[in-house]
Amino acid sequence: MLEETNVKTLDKVVVRFSGDSGDGMQLVGNIFTNVSAGLGNQVSTFPDYPAEIRAPQGSLGGVSGFQVSVGTNVHTPGDKCDVLVAMNPAALKQNVKHVKHGGVIIVDIDSFKEADLKKAMFKTLDPFTELDIKAQILEVPVTSMTKAALAESGLDNKAILKCRNFFALGLVCWLFDRPMSSVLNFLRNKFAKKPAIYEANAKVLDAGFNYGHNIHASVSTYRIESPKACPGVYTDINGNTATAWGLIMASEKSGRPLFLGSYPITPATDILHELAKRKDLGVKALQMEDEIAGVCSAIGASFAGHLAVTSTSGPGLALKGEAIGLAVIAELPLVVIDVQRGGPSTGLPTKTEQTDLMQALYGRNGESPVAVVAPTSPTDCFDMAFEASRIAIEHMTPVILLSDAFIGNGSSAWRVPEASDYPEIKPPYVPAEKVAEGSWRPYDRREDNKVRYWAIPGTEGLTHRLGGLEKDYTTGAISTDPLNHERMVYTRREKIAAIANDIPGLEVIGPDDADTLLLGWGGTYGHLRTAAHELNAAGHKVAFTHFRYINPLPANTGEVLSRYKKVIVAELNTGMFADYLQGKFPQVNISRINKVQGQPFLVEEVVNAVTNIMEK
What we know:
This protein is of the alpha/beta class and about 625 residues long.
């Protein structure tokens, strides 16, 4: 007789898949996420790739992980997981610290032979005792049952072993009552051109699900609460894909064709991949020979009248610096996407940080101001890519979009918007009366916001040239006059400052009588907002705000900061944004929470740090 399973109903659960780089953990994690999003659950993911290039199989350095939180009010992938899937001893050893007390650990016990344990640097043949695990351990013969399920498939042993991840997925789907039909639809689409692979994976998936039904051990299963969702079409989307789609929406709303000039670099390459697929929407995506060529091709496209974009990470942003300065002095619209990673130099290519902020603000020669914005989540990448494009076009300036590896690779459930949800983008074309009079000059601009008019080449009467040498304010001719240069420097500066009149103000969440304000910027939003919620629930009065607009800052920034006795800035660097705010608002009492480990914040870390600061 089978033992009765324990069913826990939770508002959210966290699952972590882990194994070797070739074990398909990212794939099954993404499928589980996509299916959950389709059921109306909120989701947040954290793909944790190794930086090594295919470390030896079974070694600690080669472990790849994928963590996802599913449920209601989900803002982070979770500090610790309810369920860990460990495909080998190395995955268990590297990830057991992420498991909640009393959680479930599913291991492929076939992969826990003596040789496997030695590769993972275990000292004994009993890894569970050695690690002092305080969780429910489910020892599942994943490999042997996968082989049994495909014994008559005709596949060779190597191909069969590649299906092990779907046995684990089937078992996890049973644990969380995920519909198999949704998973099969996903598989059918993915392997549409490889029916034999589809059949094999579907069979193994079914075997894993049935194993859960027939399991001869007591283990908790979970029922996940779903929020009431606004009607619409929902999908699971990662930040890089959302960024690409936001650019496409901006192209549609501005009436300007989209051009991407880029060079592959982790973790930004998927933006290039996604836009390269969109020829059907008129997108021109060009892979150039290097980072400098990528940005220069985009500047040429901007001069020609395109919504011009270049994508990169920190090392590439450094290489693009001189060309971005050219776009500044030419006053051309340009969107520069920096999906930040750990540095300096090659640094930590697959890990996340917020360490490019000062480079974005100041990393060019001369007085070279640009607008800087930062998305807060994978889905917000869509909105902020649109917003970066709007600012670039309507204010004729380069805009740097500071995403990061955490939100670029991570995903969330997203309601596909209607085109009518977004405003028209209005390029500042040369007024018709100026064209008719023949009075237009290349640096003619609106006096209210200092925006230079955009003259599209090929328009009769608007023949002109631009370049990197300083121009006369009135005629647009090359000028070395000292007073004219100073006027142009301040004009370009005023143009960026005027953007503050065209962006929303800061919004504050939390008690009105709080003395402490917790704030951050960019991709730390979910962790900081959750931390603020937990702090208030524990009796600490903490308000929370988050910055999406960095340069210029929202117009009410000074007023908001001045309300609080203590302002705490939390960021994944050594204090760059805190320094930036302190320089602009020296009267504000700023404390700092910093982490530079290539990993996102844990909510617990922020809660403890804020508590310590408040108690001092």
